[in-house]
Model the fold of this input.
Amino acid sequence: MPTPYRALFAAPGSKAFSAAGFLGRMPLSMMGIGVVTMVSQLTGRYGLAGALAATIALAAAVAGPQVSRLVDQYGQRRVLRPATLISLVAAAGLLLAAHYDGPDWVLFVCCAGIGCVPSVGAMVRARWAALYRGTPRLHTAYSFESVVDEICFIFGPIISIGLSTAWFPEAGPLLAACFLAVGVFWLTEQRATEPAPHPRERSGGGTALRSAGLQVLVATFVATGAIFGAVDVVTVAFAEEEGHKTAASVVLSVYALGSCAAGVVFGLLRFAGAAERRWLLGVCAMAVSMIPLLLVGNLPFLAVALFVAGLSIAPTMITTMSLIEKHVPRAQLTEGMTWVSTGLAVGVALGSSVAGWVIDAAGARAGYGVPAVSGAVAVVVGFLGYRRLKRPAPGRGGSVGQHSEREERHVA
Done:
């Protein structure tokens, strides 16, 4: 591991909470695609499978910010454990209903309950922020966490789709639930690195979404999430049309591998320009990278195209976390990070649902039009909101990167 990344773990407890966060985030890449694989195998209905995955994402979009807001007020341990138990009970209900051919409405109710899952990535990033706020290491920490996210997306789909197709249909979502339980309960056992809560009377109440800059980030990432959701569902269907459904997990992992590689390199760099410009460039790159998917003809070509498309993901997400620090009060940082995840979740819901219906109506190749259109929408929203991103919230005069540069000049 390069020296800047190794230096992150000099802080006591950092290795343990990072490892717990890795396990707790595995369901992010496993549950949705696992439900798609499970339901498509049991029923052959991609429209239903996509709608159920969309329900999980939408429920997470509704519940996630509320859970994180409570975390900011009362602490991670007191809030995450009850929320996780609700999600686990709902996941058990989904697996039983799917296995015993329960009615569709039961499947949807259970998927809504799964959406209570906490945003583990935001919890871990909040711990890094508590350790390294205002130093160059925070940029490296956010980069490392983006790499961890992509590692989850490299191995998560392989494990989930592979188990569901090679063992039994419910195996992927079942293992995702196990990862969630172990990761969250291990993380919340670590009290020494838990950020101090900010009770409502001290933080002033209200929601972090009042920030105009955060609104732009969330709106843009709704469209970005639609890219991710559509690509997942369409790739599974395309691989099945090609006669190699199990290869879908490998192809989606290549997509994440491109993002992972870019994230590693990005974390080693230091930037002097405005973070807003880098963010908008990243959004544009993600949109342009969807165009080659419209020309896909076979799985090897698809894998190459998705690897190239993945190169823009992690740098854009890392820059987004820096912008959240600029536009959200410190007492609402976890909630602010979760709102961006919520935007992604809403987009995933829309993208996977629309893609599922397009596949059922016109086939998998036509489905790749959904991420292409979503990318164009993300660019439009990003340009329209760019001026808001250039105005920091009151009392937040600079981004993490700018704080880092001041710190380096002071040290020098």
Remarks:
- The chain is about 80% helix and 0% strand.
- Residues 14-43 form the longest helix (30 residues).
- The domain at 18-199+208-392 is CATH 1.20.1250.20 (Growth Hormone; Chain: A;).
